[in-house]
Amino acid sequence: MRTGRRRLLVGAVALVVLSTVGVWVAGSGTAGIRGIAAMIGGGSSGPEDGAVPAGTRLSPFDDGAPAVGKLDAALLAALRKAATDARAKGIEVGVTSGWRSRDYQQGLLDRAVVEHGSLDRARRFVNTPDSSTHVAGKAVDVGPTDAAYWMAQYGPRYGLCQVYSNEVWHYELLTTPGGTCPAMLPDAAG
Ligand SMILES: [Zn+2]
User: Fold this and answer.
1) pLDDT digits (tens, 9 = 90+) for 86-121
2) What residues contact 126, with CB distance under 8 A and at least 6 apart?
3) How far does the centroid of ligand 1 lie from the alpha carbon of residue 75, in Å?
């Protein structure tokens, strides 16, 4: 009976400790949890989040990859037309990033904050999930370098425009084929 009561007491104490930790975690909110996730390596974004492993590229025709398959249909059609014509000139247009889940975008921003030291500075390179056109499926990053420069020159023929002058790889469908692209913004914060 004594041991039973002691077990009960230990159980009760454990419960109090656990619920206190629970309240602390809930109180720290998603920002705190995301901060912790960023510290331990940016969470666990996989292909289902639109993540593309560093140093690799997807084909613009790879429907099975969410980064490509979840792009806006009109953007994807323009990209495929451009990639087909580029290939005829010996240039392989690959996708280094396309559609991204909100979690993945938040993870990229968290990591950039750690890397650049402040949210303001990080925002020059990475958008918030709310403002990212990647999350909306309306932006694509292309590579390698020769493909990005080919796109900078010929993208407007397909309606594809470079948006930020510090990102020669980032394209959005912002005009009609052969039309004029809007003036570039200096960076993602602009
Ligand atoms: Zn981009």
Assistant:
1) 999 999 999 999 999 999 999 999 999 999 999 999
2) 105, 108, 109, 112, 188
3) 13
- CA 96, 137, 98: angle at the middle one, nearest 5? 5
Tokens matching residue 91:
């240039």
pTM: 0.76
Spatial separation of the C-alpha atoms in residues 102 and 52, rounded to whole Å: 15
Ligand 1 being an ion, which residues bring their Cβ within 5 A of it?
139, 141, 170
Residue 132 Cα to ligand 1 midpoint, Å, equals 9
Domain boundaries, the chain: 41-173
For the chain, the farthest-separated pair of C-alpha atoms sits apart, in whole angstroms, at: 86
Query: How far, in Å, from the CA of 30 to the mean position of ligand 1?
Result: 25
Each residue's pLDDT tens digit, 133-188: 999 999 999 999 999 999 999 999 999 999 999 999 999 999 999 999 999 999 88
The sign one gets for the Cα dihedral 170, 142, 135, 137 is positive
CB 110 within 8 A of CB 42: yes
Spacing, Cα 135 to ligand 1 middle (Å) = 10
Whole-number Å distance, alpha carbon 39 to ligand 1 midpoint, is 23
- CATH, domain range 41-173: 3.30.1380.10
Residue 122 CA, ligand 1 centroid: distance in Å = 14
Place of tokens 């993208």: 155
